[in-house]
């Protein structure tokens, strides 16, 4: 991190009255809330497939499918959460409600480990899975109640926490605010990295060595501290209220386009026949998706535009939206094909089956034979991503600039494409390693169990997929969509993760049932050695290759980056261009 928050304040970035709200004194409560919530969440997610398998007697396929669905719901939940925060309750109230909901969800999961009747009778799934009683409806109801509360909490915390921290500097002078926000965002993302490292090492170690009663009690306690720390700072926060104008622009454009869909559109786009705001220089819509221009068309030509502004119904400006609202809708529609091609990235980033794979491998390290917890190998994902991001701006990007002539080194679509390729490579690496592990376990390789550190390449490739793909996606949406749609751009990212989780769950279900027909052993059998998880990974790699071709077509159809309309920033006086 280039400068700490304290250094930014010492350099004069923050000069406010002692009794003023917001600023740096509010950040410890907000960042503490985020760190503790992330430690609890990461510590739960990375190893929870083991809990569902060993304590709830779910097969690896069913447990993985359930986690994919839960992940999908948790990633879609921030969309209504952002709407409620920005339009009605404000970010403080939504983060507070989300933190409390997360705490309630963690309590449900902790009690599922504490109360014997909340889960099936004890049974060793490793020795005799066929003899273990499956969970009953009451057991699943307890478990799903915890998932529901955690998803509601994710819907409140994920889209609002970082933005709420930025709100604390909204009353600072603009020239100082930009520098402060840069420091704040560095600290925020740094806190997420620290949280992940702690979760996949300390929390996973506690779960593997002290049992699930303690292993779930620790995240629950951390979630309690998270909620309390956030609420304790309530009197220090700047609390902006919600505004119902958030989606008014896109909503008005959609309504007007439907209402005026029968209107005749002239062959040429002409100045003076489209409804626009006073003093706004964006007076003519673009020719992309021209049929939407009907939504802001006052009349078909200058000559037949009525003087009273009410002929043919379409000249009634009460039925129209403005040119910039139409262009916002066009921008949202144009990015959707590329959005759909990135769903595979979420599938590649979820390494759920790597945990049971690690359980079946040799995890010992050092002379003392210390066993690395299975879930801890996910740390190589974050390490790879962090190292790449740290090196990219300093060394990689300048070298790429000299080769490509692009100021960014790589275009945004090239970075997204690189992420998809690395995600496909991660699946292929997982297939190769699983095939080798299975052959050695069945006696073909000799020398005992294969080292679990052979899983590092697939984790590292998944980390590169995230570093290239996710960062590229964020930058692409933020750049290609107008700034007034920044919340929508983040919502699109969460929708990718949610859709990817749903697709992953569907693939697991189809593969498990199709490969197990006719009395055959399923590829995703409970016994990894009896199943063919390597075939499953090869299937994903093949889908990734097909998806990459689809992405290339979407990128070609989208056209050149940076050619979208530039909107006038409110209050800035910049000149928009078409």
UniProtKB/TrEMBL annotation:
Localization, per the record, is: Membrane
**Main location (coarse class):** membrane
Q: Got a GO cellular component term for this one?
A: membrane
- Annotated GO MF terms: transmembrane transporter activity
Q: Which Pfam families match?
A: PTR2 (PF00854)
Which keywords accompany this UniProt record? Answer: Membrane, Transmembrane, Transmembrane helix
How is the protein disposed in the membrane?
Multi-pass membrane protein
Q: Which family does it belong to?
A: Belongs to the major facilitator superfamily. Proton-dependent oligopeptide transporter (POT/PTR) (TC 2.A.17) family.
Tell me what this protein is called: Major facilitator superfamily (MFS) profile domain-containing protein
Species: Oryza meyeriana var. granulata
């Amino acid at each position: 991190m280039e400068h700490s928050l304290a250094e930014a304040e010492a350099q004069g970035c923050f000069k406010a009255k002692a009794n003023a709200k917001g600023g740096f004194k509010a950040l410890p409560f907000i960042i503490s809330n985020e760190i503790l919530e992330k430690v609890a969440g990461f510590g739960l997610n990375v190893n929870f497939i083991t809990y569902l398998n060993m304590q709830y007697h779910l097969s690896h396929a069913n447990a993985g499918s359930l986690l994919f669905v839960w992940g999908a719901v948790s990633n879609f939940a921030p969309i209504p959460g952002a709407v409620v925060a920005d339009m009605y309750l404000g970010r403080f109230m939504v983060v507070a409600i989300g933190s409390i909901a997360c705490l309630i969800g963690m309590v449900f999961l902790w009690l599922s480990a504490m109360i014997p009747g909340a889960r099936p009778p004890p049974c060793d799934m490793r020795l005799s899975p066929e003899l273990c009683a499956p969970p009953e409806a009451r057991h699943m109801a307890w478990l799903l109640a915890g998932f529901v509360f955690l998803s509601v909490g994710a819907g409140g915390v994920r889209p609002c926490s970082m933005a709420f921290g930025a709100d604390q500097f909204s009353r600072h002078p603009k020239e100082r605010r930009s520098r402060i926000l840069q420091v704040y965002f560095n600290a925020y993302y740094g806190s997420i990295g620290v949280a992940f490292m702690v979760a996949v090492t300390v929390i996973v170690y506690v779960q593997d060595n002290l049992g699930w009663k303690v292993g779930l009690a620790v995240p629950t306690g951390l979630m309690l501290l998270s909620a309390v720390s956030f609420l304790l700072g309530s009197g220090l926060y700047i609390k902006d209220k919600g505004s119902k104008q958030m989606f008014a622009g896109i909503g008005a454009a959609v309504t007007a386009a439907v209402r005026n869909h029968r209107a005749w559109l002239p062959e040429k786009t002409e100045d003076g026949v489209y409804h626009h705001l006073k003093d706004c220089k964006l007076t003519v819509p673009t020719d992309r998706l021209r049929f939407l221009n009907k939504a802001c068309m006052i009349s078909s030509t200058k000559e037949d535009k009525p003087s009273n502004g009410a002929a043919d119904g379409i000249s009634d400006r009460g039925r129209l939206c403005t040119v910039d609202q139409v262009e916002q809708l066009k921008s949202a529609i144009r990015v959707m094909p590329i959005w759909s091609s990135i769903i595979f990235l979420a599938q590649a980033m979820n390494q759920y089956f790597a945990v049971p794979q690690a359980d079946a491998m040799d995890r010992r390290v050092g002379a003392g034979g210390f066993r690395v917890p299975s879930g801890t190998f996910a740390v190589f994902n974050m390490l790879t991503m962090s190292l790449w991001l740290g090196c990219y701006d300093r060394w990689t990007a300048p070298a790429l600039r000299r080769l490509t002539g692009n100021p960014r080194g790589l275009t945004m679509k090239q970075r997204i494409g690189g992420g998809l390729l690395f995600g496909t490579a991660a699946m292929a690496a997982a297939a190769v390693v699983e095939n080798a592990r299975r052959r050695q376990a069945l006696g073909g390789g000799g020398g005992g169990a294969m080292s679990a550190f052979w899983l590092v390449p697939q984790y590292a490739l998944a980390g590169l997929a995230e570093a290239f793909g996710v960062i590229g996606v964020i930058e692409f949406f933020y750049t290609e969509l107008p700034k007034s749609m920044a919340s929508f751009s983040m919502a699109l990212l969460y929708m990718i993760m949610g859709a990817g989780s749903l697709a992953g769950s569907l693939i697991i279900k189809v593969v498990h049932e199709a490969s197990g027909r006719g009395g055959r052993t399923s590829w995703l059998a409970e016994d990894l050695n009896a199943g063919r998880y390597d075939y499953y990974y090869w299937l994903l790699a093949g889908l990734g290759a097909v998806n990459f071709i689809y992405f290339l077509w979407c990128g070609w159809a989208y056209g050149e980056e940076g050619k979208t309309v530039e909107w006038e920033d409110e209050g800035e006086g910049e000149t928009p261009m078409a």
